[in-house]
């Protein structure tokens, strides 16, 4: 039953990705659709959210739902902050750091204190939410937009949990999952290098 649920959730997310590809034509949809698409159109958002699900599954126990929940709650706060006070440049650097940290956690699978993981994920969620809020389309309903990006994020977390579950099924799957984590971490470092170059 669990395997079926994971497949269904991943299929739904893939449908959202296909819809995003169709909509990526220069038109920025507002409201619910805009919120649904925003986490999917940026690989930094998409990969970080999937990684949160993977890490939560690797930690096991109640972390499987608590870690993604912490991310989503902080993301909502960050989204509201970004809508009200746009302009701060910290969010993009925070998003890049989240890729490095989450990718490294998948590669090394280091057991860290639960409180530390929750705090880090909360900070990362706030940064991603802030970016969502700042980029809300004009005339969009903030409530519908928020429901949209929360829904997409939750589905991506579920897909990450599914990947984490598959990664524990065998040595080959575990190695593939770690390779993916390494790729995400390298992408984060590349983003950070870009920010450092701009600041120099």
UniProtKB/TrEMBL annotation:
**TM region(s), chain numbering:** 64-84, 90-108, 115-131, 143-167, 179-199
Q: Which residues form the signal peptide?
A: 1-23
Which superkingdom is the protein from? Answer: Bacteria
What UniProt keywords are attached to this protein's entry?
Membrane, Signal, Transmembrane, Transmembrane helix
Which protein are we looking at?
Answer: HupE/UreJ family protein
């Amino acid at each position: 039953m669990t395997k079926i649920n994971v497949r269904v959730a991943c299929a739904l997310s893939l449908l959202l990705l296909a819809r995003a590809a169709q909509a990526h034509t220069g038109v920025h949809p507002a409201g619910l659709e805009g919120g649904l698409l925003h986490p999917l159109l940026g690989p930094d958002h998409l990969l970080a959210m999937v990684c949160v699900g993977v890490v939560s599954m690797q930690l096991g126990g109640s972390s499987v739902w608590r870690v993604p929940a912490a991310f989503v709650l902080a993301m909502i706060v960050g989204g509201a902050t970004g809508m009200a006070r746009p302009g701060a440049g910290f969010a993009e650097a925070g998003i890049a750091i989240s890729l490095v940290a989450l990718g490294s956690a998948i590669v090394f699978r280091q057991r860290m204190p639960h409180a530390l993981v929750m705090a880090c994920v909360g900070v990362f969620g706030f940064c991603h939410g802030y970016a969502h809020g700042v980029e809300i389309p004009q005339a969009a309903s903030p409530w519908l937009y928020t429901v949209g990006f929360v829904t997409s994020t939750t589905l991506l977390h579920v897909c990450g949990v599914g990947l984490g579950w598959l990664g524990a099924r065998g040595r080959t799957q575990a190695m593939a999952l770690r390779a993916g984590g390494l790729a995400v971490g390298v992408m984060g470092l590349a983003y950070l290098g870009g920010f450092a170059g701009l600041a120099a």
